[in-house]
Every structure is written in structure tokens, then in C-alpha cells.
Amino acid sequence: MKRTLPKLFLSLSGLVLLGSMVQAEPVQAETRYVTDVVYVPMRSGPGNQYRILHRGLKTGLKMTVLEADAGEGFSKVRMADGSEGYIPRQYLVAEQPARERLPKVLANVSRLSKENTALKSELSATENELNNVKGSLQETTGLLDDKTSQFIALREATADPQALDRRNKQLMEENLQLKNRIEVVEAENNQLIRSSSMRWYLYGGGTIIIGVLLGLFLPMIRFRKKPASDWV
After folding, report:
1. Would 45 be classed as within a structural domain?
2. 65 touches 87 (CB < 8 A)
3. Residues 54-78: what's their mean pLDDT?
4. Which position has the higher pLDDT, 94 or 206?
């Protein structure tokens, strides 16, 4: 028993020392913000001495100001349910607090973002359609230029009917001359063909006649032998 007492004393001393060390450690500082939710009391008169009618008018609550300066820095107001009272004028603002407007602002941002995406898609489709229209316009412009050139040439040609008639007659005469020339060339060609055929026919006939004559006269030719005295 006597031996255990010193051990118990040492254990208790260690616990006390450890507890004092833990308490000695400073608490780490953290940043905090005061909330913007305010509950304003509504009183029965313009002053803090009057009875409180409502202890908790929350921030953003809509009300109608009946008297802006009712005295003692208070304003007389009417609630949506018809109840009337006085609240400090410093808590009244013309615009809805930012905390209350935030959901509506976020909804507007989301709506505008969707509209922006839709407008971008519409713009892209419009640009593609515009490019197609530009291509069609260029093609139409090219066709118009061709038709304009043809019209100018036709107008210049028909500007002087007499000149056009003379040109037409000239072309007809040239055409007739070409036809006559072709007929002459064809006749000459046929004549050459006939002459060539006749020539070959004559050549062939002469050869046959010569052959016949040779066949008739050659057997009649005799070669006589000379007498032996002729060789002495």
C-alpha cells in the first residue's frame, strides 16, 4: 500500500502537468462574419419607450411608409397584413437588400446564360446561311455578267440594221462561194479519178494488144542458116 501511493501521486502529477500544458496552448484564431439577417422590432410609437408590437421584422420584409419622419428617428409603416407601427428609420432602404435579391439575380444570370447560348447557335446558323447566300449571289452575279456581255454584243450588232443586213448578205455570198468551190473541187476530184482509171485502162489494154501482136508475129519469124560456103 505504501509503495503504490508514490506511484499514484506521480501519475496524478503527470496528468495535472499535461492538463496545464494543454490549457496553455493558445486557441487558433478563425475569421468570422456577422450575418446580414436583422430582426427589427416594431413599436406602438416613435421611440424605444413605446410598447413593442412585433419583435422580429426580418430583413427584406416589404412594407409601406406612411410617415417618413415620425420623430425620434422613427418612421410610421404599414405591414402587408394591415398592421401599423413604428420602426427606426435607419433600417428602411429604397431597394431590396442584396441577400434577398441574390436568388433572383442568380435566376436572371442562368436565364441570360441560356439565352446567350441560344443566340450563339442562332448566330452560327445565320452566318452559315449568309455564306450560302453569298455563294449564290456570286454565282448569280457571274451569270448576270455573261448575260450583260451577250446583250451588249447583240445591241451593238443590231444598232445598225442596214449594216446587219449587209453583213448577212455578205455571209450568204461567202457561203455560196464556198459551196461552189466545194462543188468544183469535188468535180475536179472525180475527173482526176476517172482520168486515172482511164489511163490505167489504156495502159492495160495496150499491154494486152502488144502481147497479142507478139504472139501472132513471133512464130512467123524464121532464122535461116547461112550456107557453108558463106563461112569459107
Report:
1. yes
2. no
3. 86
4. 94
